[in-house]
Amino acid sequence: MKFNYFHNKQSRFGMHSFTRALSGGLTSLSPKVSLSLGKKLLLNPFGKRSYAFKALQPLEVHNINTSLGDAHVAVFGEGRELVIVSHGWADNSSGFEAMIAHLLTQGFKVAAVDHVAHGKSSGKHTHLLNFIETLSETVQYFEKNNQQIHAIVAHSMGAVATLNLPMDILKHKKLVLIATPINFFELMFEKVDKAGISTKLLTHVLESIGKQFGRDWQSLCLSQHTEKLSDNIYFVHDEHDKYACYQSVSEYLAAQKPSLFTTQGLGHRKLLGDTKVIEHISKVITS
To answer: Residue 47: pLDDT above 80?
Structure first.
């Protein structure tokens, strides 16, 4: 059972009203049952698990333990400085192949993360707090093994997770945040409502996860993390992104230090393999 956050069609009005009332009523009458149903429905990525890199082979593979399962991390190259790449919801690390190949020519080692319930990692369910946990554990794992982490390049929900990392982890690292959904939770609520699911159910699930991790889900909103914005952070965004509004990121960065590299016609995901985008990212992390 999966809910597709990238599905733009709205359910028919009559069915929309019925299913929203049903899911809202279940949340009120049976919190435990609705929580179980909500997690299965809303935390199950609608993405391809099986994939292979076309022209690259990892030199190492690591399994990073998290509360929801092991995250698969493939390491490419033998450079002294490491770049971590993180995909978004319902995706996997293969989308970074062209970028990884280019970074290898620049002398970097690259660690490509498959988040839990994505790609070659274990687990069936995940969420933003687990993305944050996975990135945090990955950084600490490599730093404990005396690996110098130079940069983190993250896409979509991976970018939201990256900016939620503690300051001590982000310190002295360059960050490239691609197609960042600034209003992450607003978009979630909007998609759920359009699909005819009660927003009460989503709130119930978010509050439960927050209690488990000891954090209010509202504290994950990027509006709460503007103090982290510095000239070591670079944003990349397409003007025609259907899933992460360009205007939102433009307004978010107004009067802030990070630069914004703008593309046109690439949408939400194609910019990962775009030559100009890759060259820009290479330039900013080597400058």
So the answer is: no
**Sheet holding 60-66: strands in order across?**
60-66, 69-76, 109-114, 81-86, 148-155, 174-178, 233-238, 259-263
How many structural domains comprise the chain? 1
111 lies in which domain range? 49-183+221-286
| CA distances, 179 to each of 64, 73, 244, 277 (Å) | 25, 22, 6, 12
Longest dimension (CA), the chain: 59
| CATH number reported for the structural domain that contains residue 158 in this entry | 3.40.50.1820
**Percentage of the chain with pLDDT > 70?**
89
- Residue 55 neighbours by CB distance under 10 Å: 8
The reply to whether the predicted model has a pTM over 0.90 is yes
Alpha helices in 145-274 (DSSP H): 157-163, 167-170, 184-194, 199-213, 246-252
Return the amino acid letter for 204. H
Residue 41 pLDDT > 90: no
Q: Encode 205-236: b = buried (16+ Cβ within 10 Å), e = exposed.
A: bbeebbeebeeebeebbbeebeebbeebbbbb
Asked, for residue 29, whether it belongs to a domain, the answer is no
Q: What pLDDT digit, counting tens, does each position of 49-92 carry?
A: 889 999 999 999 999 999 999 999 999 999 999 999 999 999 99
